[in-house]
Amino acid sequence: MTAISIVAHSHPFVVGVDTHARNHVYAILAPATGTLLETREFPTSAAGINRAIAWVARRTEADVDTLWVIEGAASYGAVLAGTVATHGYPVAEAPRMDAKTRRGVGKSDVLDAHQIAVTTLGLPVHQLRRPRLNDGVRQSVRILVTARESMSADRTRSVNALNALVRANELGVDARKKLTSAQMSEVSRWRSREEELSLSVARSEAVRLAKHVLDLDEQLTANETQLDELIKASEAAPLLQEKGFGVISTAKCLTAWSHHGRVRDEAAFASLAGVNPIPASSGNTIRYRLNRGGDRSLNSALHMVAITRMTHDAETRAYVEKRRTEGKTDREIRRCLKRYLSRRVYRELNASAAPKNTV
């Protein structure tokens, strides 16, 4: 049996960082003894981060194997994590700490930084959560995907509000079904008219909502165009040739995967996507339950690809029919497809990003 390597045995020093908007608090531990060497607070400015890195280098003899464990490596600690990584240090996201872990320890920024480092010491190295890279293409894709999700949610709210408004007020539009794009375009061109006050206000609000929806449609189209250009210049470009993968689903996959080496293997990627069945057996009962965790945006992307393949891909439809004859429900078949797709995505991205051998 292969021994599991833990953080305390793999890194000469561990730096725990409690991050905030204005200042970060740093705690340096020596894993061999668990000794807290020193704590210090630095501003979050570029100068403050550089001072913090220089201070850690002095206290750790500039050992580049020093592990930095940063709370909020995708938010308050994002700039710090990126800067530390460019200096050649390994970086990990702080482990989640529940109330039981904190009980009896107390609460302060210094104690939090110390506890982040201490909690990491016993973790297997392969369980460390590596933050996503914040370089040009990946960060740009991540920003655009986040913006798209916000715009899509805003559009859904506005469409629902518009439909509710025209159904509750007699504005001269057929609202028995949801308004079509053509109807929304017509509503956006309505002019004010002489009518009862409440209808006049309702008409004005309908025009505003319709214009907002149409404006969001233009922004979403521009967003997809930008994503298409970025994806074609990234490691994820080959995924666009796979059946069912469009620009948006591919962008979400790239955002979750981030870079070669972040996710240790395809099983870990399936767990990240929330498509791995979780054992829930007891005694003679053997069963599995759904994984409700993971990256739900990635899970949603795989779900849409699975639906597309089940509808339009002949090979997938044949697979679906075969599994139906075995007694599988469509929901169970989708789960199998999503697990297969996560494996396919992981292998494709890793193969595309792997260093090429040159002679």
UniProtKB/TrEMBL annotation:
Record GO terms (molecular function): DNA binding; transposase activity
Pfam families per UniProt: DEDD_Tnp_IS110, Transposase_20
Limits of the Transposase IS110-like N-terminal domain: 15-166
Biological process according to GO: DNA transposition
Transposase IS116/IS110/IS902 C-terminal domain mapped to chain residues: 239-320
Signal peptide: none
NCBIfam families in the record: transpos_IS110 (NF033542)
Name of the protein: IS110 family transposase
